[in-house]
């Protein structure tokens, strides 16, 4: 059987670049995609550190673009040679959840890549239900233009939609990492009067937030974000808060920033329990939403990128060949040289 290189999980703190079997068509709805560009995501770090369990021997990674190499007999929308962006969420298109658009809970899909199915930090990947999960990349766009539509941009946009931003709203984004920066770019599309980025200690990331459209940035290590946002909102608090970290501190910050009657949208991946103090919140009339991205806006996001309404290429700070993936993980994990998004090239 033909071989390829891939990043393989063996145990917490033990991933390796190894030679493994190249994937094959298993079902007639499958496609084999030659990966041209992939990334490391925060969820991959949860896997690396044992905070999210996966089986040993799994190829990790779920955010990627590539070129179709082979399609199954029932794939009708794509052909070999097509450039595609691939959703991190697999969807069959026919089950109860897919029919209502809740692709994250597809009975034969959901988050598979790098979770229960071999993922995309590899030279090739098998894509189930290819007609549903793959999206053509316009000729005028490069890999780096659309690289994030399959995961972090979809995730951020999902959080923004859940927040139901209205024209004139004041929006606070908690977390200035890659998802938070995507949330800023997405929130701009909905007409807020002000976007406030809140980070803890990395001023470089807050400067990136300003470049992507934040009107104000708050470094919580230097000033109280609650007090600052009240100063900016006549003492009320933010109309909308979008939490993009997935930690106890960021969650508590988000809940403290929202005004009575406001909306809080959680899109961070939580690996530990957090407390919901209903005895303090019950009378604030807050709407709270969270969930796993459905990745159902990829066609629209590609068009927004094509129309120059979203440009996230500045998030890419480091690029490594696939064989240097361990170094790439170190750079991303430790935020070396102000790393934002780290790209792998097979």
TrEMBL record:
PROSITE patterns (alphabetical): ADH_ZINC (PS00059)
Pfam families: ADH_N, ADH_zinc_N
Domain Enoyl reductase (ER) per the UniProt entry, residue ranges: 10-344
Cofactor requirement: Zn(2+)
InterPro entries named in the record: ADH-like_C (IPR013149), ADH-like_N (IPR013154), ADH_Zn_CS (IPR002328), ER (IPR020843), GroES-like_sf (IPR011032), NAD(P)-bd_dom_sf (IPR036291)
UniProt keyword terms in alphabetical order: Metal-binding, Oxidoreductase, Zinc
Coiled-coil region list: none
SMART domains in UniProt: PKS_ER (SM00829)
GO MF entries: oxidoreductase activity; zinc ion binding
Membership in a protein family: Belongs to the zinc-containing alcohol dehydrogenase family.
Name of the featured protein: Alcohol dehydrogenase
The species this protein was found in: Caldanaerobius fijiensis DSM 17918
Lineage, opening ranks: Bacteria, Bacillati, Bacillota, Clostridia, Thermoanaerobacterales
């Amino acid at each position: 059987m033909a071989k390829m290189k891939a990043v393989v999980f063996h145990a917490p703190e033990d991933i390796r670049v190894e030679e493994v079997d190249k994937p094959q068509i298993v079902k007639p709805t499958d496609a084999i995609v030659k990966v041209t560009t992939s990334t490391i995501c925060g969820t991959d770090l949860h896997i690396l550190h044992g905070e999210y369990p996966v089986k040993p021997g799994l190829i990790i990674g779920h955010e990627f673009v590539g070129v179709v190499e082979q399609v199954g007999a029932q794939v009708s929308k794509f052909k070999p040679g097509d450039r595609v962006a691939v959703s991190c969420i697999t969807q069959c298109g026919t089950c109860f959840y897919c029919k209502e658009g809740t692709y994250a809970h597809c009975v034969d899909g959901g988050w598979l890549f790098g979770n229960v199915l071999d993922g995309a930090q590899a030279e090739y990947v098998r894509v189930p239900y290819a007609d549903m999960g793959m999206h053509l990349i316009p000729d005028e766009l490069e890999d780096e233009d659309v690289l994030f539509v399959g995961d972090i941009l979809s995730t951020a946009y999902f959080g923004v939609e859940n927040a139901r931003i209205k024209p004139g709203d004041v929006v606070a984004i908690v977390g200035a990492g890659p998802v938070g920066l995507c949330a800023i770019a997405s929130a701009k599309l909905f007409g807020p009067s002000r976007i406030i980025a809140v980070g803890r200690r990395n001023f470089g990331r807050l400067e990136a937030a300003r470049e992507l459209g934040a009107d104000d940035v708050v470094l919580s290590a230097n000033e109280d974000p609650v007090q600052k946002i009240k100063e900016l909102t006549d003492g009320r608090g933010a109309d909308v808060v979008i939490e993009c970290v997935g930690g106890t501190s960021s969650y508590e910050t988000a809940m403290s920033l929202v005004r009575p009657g406001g909306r809080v949208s959680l899109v961070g991946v939580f690996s530990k329990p957090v407390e919901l103090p209903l005895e303090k919140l019950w009378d604030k009339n807050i709407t709270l939403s969270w969930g796993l991205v459905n990745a159902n806006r990829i066609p629209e996001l590609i068009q927004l990128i094509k129309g120059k309404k979203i440009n996230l290429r500045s998030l890419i700070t480091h690029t490594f060949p696939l064989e240097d993936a361990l170094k790439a993980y170190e750079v991303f994990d430790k935020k070396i040289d102000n790393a934002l998004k780290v790209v792998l090239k097979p």
